[in-house]
Write a structure and sequence with these properties.
The complex is a heterodimer of chains A (151) and B (612). Chain A is mainly alpha-helical. Chain A is built from nine helices and four strands. Among the domains of chain B are: 377 residues, Na+/H+ antiporter like fold (Up-down Bundle), CATH 1.20.1530.20; 46 residues, no CATH class. Chain B has 24 helices and no strands. Classes of the chains: A mainly alpha (151), B mainly alpha (612).
Chain lengths: 151, 612
């Protein structure tokens, strides 16, 4: 099984702004080790969506790489306290990670406000999962969150 | 009486000259320096107007300068200006460019796509050469054009030299269009490999032209020759690459001349291969690719930077000189114009290239896991620019065997000018046109940029996780062999394994702490912004404020790590991303330390946000 240190040793991940969050996503709640099965479960989110899946089982659980599950994966990267809402604070943290040092806090704050404003529909100044999905309905999530695993 | 004064004939003494002018003494180095200086000044001139290089590729501008110069010389002296000497081109001007391309070649991506690259380079070039040759022969048979004296072999030879896609020209144009990595490595690799094919075919057909009869055994000898030339060149390159790596193992006492070894060994591989009539280009590419890994770890950081910069400088100068010479050599009396030949040559070049790419892609897509799309094919086909190599090859034709040599020269020049100017300038708008048709433009929201970048970072991160643990049989075997034998032999001990690790080491903790104290990193949103929020509703923004926000974001969002730096003849791309990497690393170190401090001082709290 893999531990956090194994992931941190990947040099490219060290300079990825969201590196820590991505590493966290592999580990289930509160654990420090992930086995192969868990590892593959996380990676399975990134399988490309195929239209002609013969075994389209309407009654069974949704496959991990469905659009909704991909979005859920991304949502979880923002939502650290797992309250199913992205608060302004959580958004600010992610923004700060993605942005250089030349942006002041005030500017970042107003950008975060704007982002929430564009997504928020029920006026609670936080982004729920449904609102998150709605904002991204025009984004080609399937393409952006898919990786071809076989080279 | 007085002695006769010395008469004013043979033995008259000359007084001491205070000031003399002795041009013949320094003529050759003086002229060389002037040419290079002129080329570099021209480059400064282009970049004065900053939009110019993005609309018109530099190669076009340089040719124009050359034309201007050629015109001046022609007008002043009423004779043809100096034509570029083929020896000078092949021995001095071409190696730096190929060395530069080979040294900065991303080896892993190259080998992953090696099959496709090889397929396009070998089969594609053969297809083009033979296709163009035969169709031109067909045209020549039509007596109305007055070309019937050109034989089939001559046409084949012409076809082989004009099908050489030129790496110099292609890469100069590709910078502008931001292609994806796959495509970039395909065209890059193809243009390098196909030079070997071209040279082999060229020499083959040239010897055939000079032989009276051609037996079947000669054709087989030709095929065997191709393999020997290619593989022999590569072997020489690899051998000398290993010797170079081995040498640098012992150079830590004489750091100052470390870069010299890199250049000497690679040039040695080129001329050794040329001596045996093997492919010098393959040799120098193989040498550079072999050397790269090991030398990078053995030499000091300063030497490494010196090597990179010097290589760029040499190849930049070479490229500039080549294009200027092309312009200069165009002016003059070397031409014979024949409408049919020239226009059909151009037409066939375009048609056969497009057909070739299309057919080959259909076949190779069956074997690839990531098929090439129509847009990719278009870029590959349209990006097949011709340049200096065909130009030099055509000048090398022996006029005794080729009475219509001037016709060939004219045709080659027309094709080069067309591809470099017209295709070079229009490829960018065409690609944008193809792209725009797919996506639908709507007013983008401020947050969209954030989300897009967010997804891209996540995707790259996961790709890195996979790539790190992805397995490939041959690569693993090579890595094992490498670690067990080669690295032990070729690398000095105690070297950090990757540039990221060495970057880590360079950031002293003290320095990082200093930066953190000075407020560079703020984890918690400052109270100012918090109070803003609590006070009132979020007010809707005016369009200018939106624009401002979007601008701030575009400028400041971190770039996604690119696996391959986009190849740029004219600059070393690493600086911006290095700065970004430093910032991210400092921040993570800081937060790592913060969280360690927290978990140490607190009692068993669930380490939820251990790494935030």
């Amino acid at each position: 099984s893999l531990s956090r240190e194994d992931f941190q040793r990947i040099p490219e991940l060290a300079i990825n702004p969201l590196g820590d969050r991505i590493i966290n996503a592999f580990f289930p709640e509160g654990e420090d080790q992930v086995n192969f099965r868990g590892f593959m479960r996380t990676l399975a989110h990134f399988r490309p969506i195929e239209d002609n899946e013969k075994s389209k089982d309407q009654n069974g659980p949704e496959p991990l790489n469905s659009r909704s599950n991909k979005l859920h994966f991304a949502f979880r990267l923002y939502d650290l306290d797992k309250d199913d809402k992205i608060s302004r604070d959580e958004l600010l943290q992610v923004l700060r990670m993605m942005v250089g040092v030349n942006i002041s806090d005030e500017q970042l704050g107003s950008i975060a406000d704007r982002t929430i404003q564009e997504a928020d529909q029920d006026g609670d100044s936080a982004i729920s999962f449904a609102e998150f999905v709605k904002v991204l309905e025009k984004v080609d999530v399937e393409q952006k969150m898919s990786i071809r695993f076989l080279h | 009486g007085t002695p006769p004064s010395p008469s004013g004939t043979a033995f008259e003494e000359t007084r001491l000259h205070v000031f003399t002018l002795d041009y013949p003494h320094v003529q050759i180095p003086f002229e060389i320096t002037l040419w290079i200086l002129l080329a570099s000044l021209a480059k400064i001139g282009f970049h004065l107007y900053h939009k110019l290089p993005s609309i018109v590729p530099e190669s076009c501008l340089l040719i124009l300068v050359g034309l201007l110069l050629g015109g001046i010389i022609f007008g002043a002296e009423e004779k043809s200006p100096p034509v570029m000497n083929s020896d000078v081109f092949f021995l001095y001007l071409l190696p730096p460019i190929v060395l530069d391309a080979g040294y900065f070649m991303p080896t892993r991506l190259f080998f992953e796509n090696f099959g496709t690259i090889f397929w396009y380079a070998v089969v594609g070039t053969l297809w083009n050469a033979i296709g163009i040759g035969i169709s031109l022969y067909g045209i020549c048979q039509i007596s109305a054009f007055g070309l019937t004296d050109i034989t089939l072999l001559q046409n084949l030879l012409f076809g082989s030299l004009i099908s050489a896609v030129d790496p110099v020209a292609v890469l100069a144009v590709f910078e502008n269009i931001h292609v994806n990595e796959q495509l970039y490595i395909l065209v890059f690799g193809e243009s390098l490999l196909n030079d070997a094919i071209t040279v082999v075919l060229y020499n083959l057909f040239k010897s055939f032209c000079q032989m009276r009869t051609i037996k079947v055994i000669d054709i087989f000898a030709g095929i065997a020759n191709f393999f020997i030339v290619g593989i022999g060149g590569v072997l020489i390159g690899i051998l000398l690459g290993f010797v170079a790596a081995f040498t640098t193992r012992f150079t830590h006492k004489i750091r100052v001349i470390e870069p010299l070894f890199v250049f000497l060994y690679s040039y040695l591989s080129y001329i050794t291969a040329e001596m045996f009539h093997l492919s010098g280009i393959m040799a120098i590419t193989a040498c550079a690719m072999t050397m790269n890994k090991y030398v990078e770890e053995n030499v000091s950081q300063k030497s490494y930077t010196t090597i990179k910069y010097f290589m760029k400088m040499l190849s930049s100068v070479s490229e500039t000189l080549i294009f200027i010479f092309m312009g200069v050599s165009t002016v003059g009396k070397n031409h014979e114009w024949n409408w049919a030949f020239v226009s059909f040559t151009l037409l066939f070049c375009l048609i056969w290239r497009a057909l070739g790419v299309f057919v080959l892609t259909q076949i190779i897509n069956v074997f690839r896991t990531i098929p090439l799309t129509f847009k990719d094919q278009f870029i590959i086909a349209y990006g097949g620019l011709r340049g200096a190599i065909c130009f030099s090859l055509v000048f090398l034709l022996p006029p005794a065997v080729f009475p219509r040599k001037k016709l060939f020269i004219t045709a080659v020049i027309v094709v080069i000018f067309f591809t470099v100017f017209i295709q070079g300038i229009t490829i960018r708008p065409l690609v944008e046109f193809l792209d725009v048709k797919r996506s639908n433009k709507k007013q983008p929201a401020v947050s969209e940029e954030i989300y897009n970048r967010f997804f891209d970072h996540v995707k790259t991160g996961i790709e890195d996780v996979c790539g790190h643990w992805g397995h490939n049989f041959w690569r693993d075997k090579f890595k094992k062999f490498d670690n067990k034998y080669l690295r032990r032999l070729l690398i000095r001990e105690n070297q950090p394994k990757s540039s990221i690790v060495s970057l880590y080491k360079k950031l002293e903790i003290k320095h990082a702490i200093e930066m953190a104290e000075s407020g560079m990193i703020s984890k918690v949103p400052s109270s100012v912004s918090l109070s803003d929020y609590h006070e009132g509703k979020i007010k809707p923004l005016s369009p200018t404020e939106m624009e401002n926000m979007r601008e701030i974001l575009t400028k400041n969002l971190y770039q996604i790590r690119h696996r391959t730096m986009s190849y740029n003849r004219h600059s070393l791309a690493a600086d911006a991303s290095e700065k970004q990497a430093k910032e991210i690393l400092i921040r993570r170190r800081h937060s790592l330390r913060e969280s360690l401090r927290k978990t140490n001082s607190l009692s068993r709290e669930r380490p939820v946000l251990a790494f935030c």
